[in-house]
Amino acid sequence: MSYVAENALIIQSDRSVLLEVHSPRADAARAAIAPFAELIKSPEHIHTYQISPLSIWNARAAGMLVADMIAALRDHVKYPMPEAVAQEISALGSRYGLTVIKRDDNRLLLKTADVPLAELLSRTNEVAKYLADRLSDQVFAVNAGDRGVLKQSLLGAGYPAEDLAGYVTGDALKLELRPISASGAPFVLHDYQKASAEAFYQAGRAQGGSGVIVLPCGAGKTMVGLAAIAQVQENTLILTSSLTSVRQWQRELLDKTTLPPDAIAEYSGESKQTAPITLATYQILSYRASKDGEFPHFQLFKARSWGLIIYDEVHLLPAPIFRITAELQARRRLGLTATLIREDGKEGDVFALIGPKRYDVPWRELEGQGFIAAAECTEIRISQTTARQMEYAVAEKRHQFWIAAENPRKHEVVRSLLQKEHGHRILIIGEFLDQLKQLATLTELPLVTGKTP
C-alpha cells in the first residue's frame, strides 16, 4: 500500500473524507474537493467531509466532470482510495443528465438517455404518475403543472433531471446598479459576487435561471441578488426569513440601484402592497388560520407576472413554500444561503425545485482574501458545584441540559470576559430566558427577547 505523507486526505469506504488540517497540502486538498463534498464538521485537527449523491449532482450541474472528481481525490490521498468509492462516484455522477426536460413549441417533454431507462421510469410509480403520453421509445409528454413534482420524483428515483425547458418572460423592469450609491459611497461588486450572478443567469440561456448561490455570512449575498435582478430586468418577488431582512433588502435596493421608492413594496402583516419589486417573509406566506386551511397569501405568487423569485436564506424555506414553488417552475428562481444543509433534510427539494448549486465560495477563502472578518473561536468549560453535580445526576435526561446550561459559575466568566474585551461591541447569546435575565441584572446590559418592540 502506497503512502504519501504530505497529502491531507483519508477516504473511507462510506464516502466520508477526512482532511488533516495541519498537512502541508491541506489548503489545496480542501479547494479540490469543495465542489463535490459537503463539510460535515470542522474541529481543530481533522475536518470531515461527506460525498453524497446530491453533492455529486450539484457538482455535475455546475459542469464538473466525474473524472475530475476522482482525480482530485486521488491527487490528495494519503492512502489509496477504495476502488468501490471511485466506482460509486462514477455511477452516481453519470446519472445526472440521463433525463432531460425540454420544451417543444408549447409542450413539455421528458427525454431519457436510452430505452431501458425509459422503461424503468415508466414502471416506477412515483415517476410514472407524472408522465403523460409516451411519444416515442425515449420521450414522454409532461403536463406543464407537473414540471416541479416530476423533478422531485426523478430525484427520488436517483435520476435527477436537467431542466432545459426555459422560462416565461415576466413584466419588464428597468434598473441599473449605481457606481456611486445613494449614500455617496462607491459601489463595485466583488469578483466573486459578479461570478455568482453570472453563474446563475448564464446570459439568459435555459441552462441558467435557476439555482442556489452559497456564500458565507457577511459575503454580500444581497449584492448577488441585486446583480441578478439587474441582469434579468423583470419584476421580482423577494422572499426572506424576517421583517428585518425585508427592510435590509429595501435599504440596499434604494441605495445601490436606480429604482425609485414607489417601485418597491412590502407584503407583510403591516402592509400588503405589491410593486415591480415586492418583498415578503416566509412567515406571512405560510400563514393559515387552521391546520387544514388554505394559505390565503399564496395569491401573491400570481399577483404580478414575476420574472424572478429570490429565496433568501433558502435553507430556512418552509415546506408550504416548496409546495407552491413546485408550481412555479416556469419562473426564474434564485436561492441564496450560507449552507445547503437543512434541519429537515429536504436538501433534495431545494435541488429539484429551486435548482442546483451554481456557485460556492468557502468561507476560508474569502477570509484569507479579507472579504469577511476572521473568526477566532474559544471553548471554555466550566465545572459545576458539588450540589449542582448531584442535581444533574438525579435529574431526568431532558432537564440535564437545562441544569448544565444555567451553571451559575458562568456568571463570573462572563464578567471577566466583559472586562477583558472592554470597548468592543459585545453580544451575549443564551439558551434560556431566566439565565439571560440574571446576566442582564448582573451586567446591567439591555436584554433583547421576543417581547422586545
Task: Please give the structural blueprint.
Blueprint: E1 9-11, E2 16-20, H1 26-33, E3 38-41, E4 46-50, H2 53-61, H3 66-76, H4 83-95, E5 99-104, E6 107-112, H5 115-122, H6 125-128, E7 134-136, E8 139-142, H7 147-157, E9 161-163, H8 191-201, E10 210-214, H9 221-232, E11 236-240, H10 243-256, E12 264-267, E13 277-281, H11 282-285, E14 308-312, H12 319-325, E15 332-337, H13 347-354, E16 357-360, H14 363-368, H15 386-394, H16 397-405, H17 410-420, H18 433-443
Parallel strand pairs: 5-9, 10-15, 10-16, 11-13, 11-14, 12-13, 14-15
Antiparallel strand pairs: 1-2, 2-4, 3-4, 5-6, 6-8, 7-8
Organism: Trichocoleus desertorum GB2-A4
Domain Helicase ATP-binding: 202-358
Pfam families: Helicase_C_3 (PF13625), ResIII (PF04851)
